[in-house]
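User: My instructor asked us to take a sequence, write out its structure as tokens, and then describe one feature of it. I'm not sure where to start. Here is the sequence I was given:
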Amino acid sequence: MNPRPTGRLVRAATGSDLVLTRSFRASVEDVWASVTEPERTARWFGPWKGDAAPGRTIQVQMSFEDEAPWFDMHIDACEPPHRLAISATDEHGTWRIELLLSEADGSTRLEFVEHLDTEEQIGENGPGWEYYLDRLVAARDGSPEPDFDAYYPAMKPYFIDQIGQDPAG
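Assistant: Let's start with the prediction itself. The structure tokens for your sequence are:
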């Protein structure tokens, strides 16, 4: 399998966003469960534990990273089944992420947005998020799990090239 990158860099008045989308033949409630219920997030990202609610912090495990680290993730907003905003801080900086879901004609569109403080890490982050979102697709439809080696470093140039593109078109 040679996955194709789908993410795009979007510049707005408040900064830059890395935006990736996936579509699912499922209800918005079912896709919401895949991104919020710990036993379902464990299938594609990692489990989480804690008392989840807006303004609270939970612990999330990145099961598919070296040493499967746990880290704190703050829930900035939770508006089921359409919007989840979360943030975390680690040695690489602060991660501010939104998951936006919308349903039409029997399909749910998931828009994954990473609000970037800088564009410096886009060559690493872009392929990583593509990988995790394809893991979500595989977990939902039973297809084979993707191989990270097909994403990184192969997709890195695609994302770095977006830094130089004229946002006006």
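For the description part of your assignment, you could build on this observation: Strands lie at 8-12, 15-24, 48-49, 57-61, 70-79, 83-90, 93-104, 107-116. Try explaining in your own words what that tells you about the chain.
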